[in-house]
Specification:
- The chain has a six-stranded antiparallel barrel with strand order 2-4-7-6-5-9. Strands 3-8 form a two-stranded antiparallel ribbon.
- With 124 residues, it is mainly beta.
- It is elongated and about 80 Å long.
- It has strands at 20-21, 26-32, 38-39, 44-47, 59-71, 78-94, 99-106, 110-111, 115-118.
């Protein structure tokens, strides 16, 4: 359009990033951007951790749910609680105290308030 300015490509700040494990971080899913309460693959979610906690563009984090594993060998209903990775998120926009992330992989849907942690390197 008349009045638009052209800037040489070399002068623009180029965003070059690659997926990498996030530093040790623990937070929560704050919102599902499309307005639903449940998220799954290809949804965008907001998390309550950001640059102040060490996240940057390309950080990979996991949504973790505590799962009960029952041991009824001795006819007693005892159980242990273990963490299970439900989804993998790729952070693409980071503010000081929050970030937006794309759900790259999900075994199950998850919701607002679920725990977000650093990706377990043994599970990759």
């Amino acid at each position: 359009m008349i009045g638009d300015r052209l800037i040489p490509w070399a002068e623009l700040e180029q965003q070059r990033w690659w997926p990498h494990p996030a530093p040790v971080v623990s937070g929560r899913v704050a919102a599902v951007i499309r307005g639903s309460t449940w998220a799954s693959v290809n949804d965008v979610v907001a998390i309550n951790r950001g640059r102040q906690q060490g996240l940057d563009t390309g950080s990979v984090v996991a949504v973790v749910r505590q799962v009960r594993i029952y041991d009824d060998v001795n006819q007693r209903a005892t159980y242990t609680v273990m963490p299970e990775e439900i989804a993998t998120l790729l952070v693409f926009d980071v503010a000081d105290a929050a970030a937006l992330a794309l759900v790259m992989h999900a075994k199950d849907s998850f919701t607002i308030g679920d725990t977000v942690e650093s990706v377990d390197k043994d599970m990759r």
